[in-house]
Amino acid sequence: MIATTKGGDVWPSFVRKLIASVLCVVAGLAGAVDVRVLAPNAVKESIAAIAGRYELASGNRVVFAWAGTESITKRVSEGEVFDVVVNAAQNIDSLVAEGRLVSGSRTDFARSAIGVAVQAGLPHPDVATVDALRQTVLKANSIAISSGTSGRHVADVFQRLGIANQVKNKIRQPPSGSQIAELLARGEAELGFQQVSELLHASGVDFLGPLPTEIQLYTIYSAGLHASASAPEAARGFMKTLASPDAVEEIKKTGMESM
Questions:
Q1: SS (H, E, C) the chain
Q2: In CATH, what class is 114-215?
Q3: Is the pTM for the entire model greater than 0.85?
């Protein structure tokens, strides 16, 4: 026999509230969408954590694909479609100019300095000043630099320091998206340069510090809305979360700065 409450209501109020809550959740899930994001490894740790917050708040799911900055630019330029493209700011601008990304959608959310690392357990050479870094590079038996923004800048620094010809045969430059920390950890290079966010917490390496201020280059990371996004409103919501105050803590954890 089903008990009734005063007035003949079959269900107690708390049961009705519970049912209403469940129905709201089910309705929300029914309207949930996947937000497809192509992003560089340099921001992987931070935006994956930020995405978790976005998913809890929105009910949507963020589906990531990871690559290097140059690879991302090439893939999108050649026609791959994602809802959100994350890349170095200048690469976002070039994709906007091509019409691949929506004009005015660029959302800056973090910037990263370039850092230096060695295999864990090796002596820590001095990289604190320009002259000290120059001597460290000259003494290194092998040097790894990326094929992205940081690698191009480091190559320019070697030119400015007048040591490009002396070290050119020592340099290893793997394809876009490769992790310099992994080469160092395997002993395939003695000294490595990449974004601080890719070196700071990497296993098997010791982070020596950022490039000296006089030769430092900050890469601004931005998100852009794809012109053919299948979930544009959800994508804009995710981009807004990337640049929100709630994202600052996750960005700083990885050695980057919020914008």
A1: CCCCCCCCCCCCHHHHHHHHHHHHHHHHHHCCCEEEEEEEHHHHHHHHHHHHHHHHHHCCEEEEEEECHHHHHHHHHCCCCCCEEEEEHHHHHHHHHCCCECCCCCEEEEEECEEEEEECCCCCCCCCCHHHHHHHHHHCCCEEECCCHHHHHHHHHHHHCCCHHHHHHHEECCCCCCCHHHHHHCCCCCEEEEEHHHHCCCCCEEEEEECCHHHCCCEEEEEEEECCCCCHHHHHHHHHHHCCHHHHHHHHHCCCEEC
A2: alpha beta
A3: no
